Amino acid sequence: PGAENYGFQAQPMQPMGFPGGFVPPVQNQPTMGGTIWMPIPPSIPNCPPGLEYLTQEFSRLCPHFSVLTGFETNNRYELKNALGQRVYFAAEDTDCLTRNCCGPSRPFTIRIIDNLGHEVITLRRPLRCSLCCCPCCLQELEVQAPPGTTVGYVVQNWHACLPKFTIQDEKRMDILKITGPCIVCRCCEDVHFEVKSVDETCDVGRISKQWTGLVREMFTDTDNFGISFPMDLDVKMKAVMIGACFLIVSLSFTNI
């Protein structure tokens, strides 16, 4: 209670070019696979355009999130709320050589668009190392909302055993901490990355890899994730938490 839950679910998509070739469906109308877009919320003063979706209340419903990957194509994502309505669509903008040579440590740009076709969030990740033996060059992700305006960063912290990250605002001030388990691959149970206050004394939210069954885990490229955060969290930091989820997914749960 007292937290909003947002998720991402990947479904088979119609062939398209991104972002210019993407034509969003009519608001509230089913798309392929029965997907329904979340209604467009009213504009809110001092809220970056497109982030109004993250101010809506879904605290009593379950989160959903998933990832669709491909060897020869860029990763694509659907971001859904707890009602199963699509909030955003996202696609990674990298070439095949980069994806397959750099793997989980690859640089990328992920463009997140709303149901009007507007790019509302841009995630930029430079080429960095993710090994604990190179603490001076760990992963970092910049979150822009709208594109061109930095609202925060996700910075990987050095630790010998645990995946740890810091969420920072646009001025590089630490806002939240994220700590994952030592072993991120578990059978028949969810994997949780706990979001905590800066001093790590209070639980604030959670990013979870959800177990979807043995067959789906072994034979498909689709993963499910969930994000929960406080309802009163700054909407910009909610956008940065979405970026943190993408960084965690790329580092810990995908090979391409």
Short summary of the structure?
One of its GO terms (cellular component) is plasma membrane. The protein is mainly beta and 256 residues long.
Structure description:
- The protein has 256 residues and is mainly beta.
- The protein has one domain (52-129, 136-253): Porin (Beta Barrel).
- It is 12% helix and 34% strand.
- The chain contains 3 helices and 14 strands.
- Strands 1, 2, 3, 4, 5, 6, 7, 8, 9, 10, 11, 12, 13 and 14 form a 14-stranded mixed beta sheet that branches.
- A hairpin with a 6-residue loop joins strand 9 and strand 10.
- It is globular, with a radius of gyration of 17 Å.
- It starts with a strand and ends with a helix.
Which descriptor suits the 3D outline?
globular
Distance between the termini: 36 Å
Instruction: Output the structural class.
Output: mainly beta
CATH architecture annotation: Beta Barrel
Number of domains: 1
Q: Give the rounded overall mean pLDDT.
A: 74
What's the layout of helices and strands?
Blueprint: E1 3-8, E2 36-37, E3 66-68, E4 76-81, E5 85-92, H1 96-102, E6 108-113, E7 119-125, E8 140-144, E9 150-157, E10 164-169, E11 174-179, E12 191-196, E13 203-210, H2 214-219, E14 222-230, H3 235-252
Parallel strand pairs: 2-5
Antiparallel strand pairs: 1-4, 1-14, 3-4, 3-14, 4-5, 5-6, 6-7, 7-8, 8-9, 9-10, 10-11, 11-12, 12-13, 13-14
Features:
256 residues, globular, palmitate, transmembrane helix, phosphoprotein
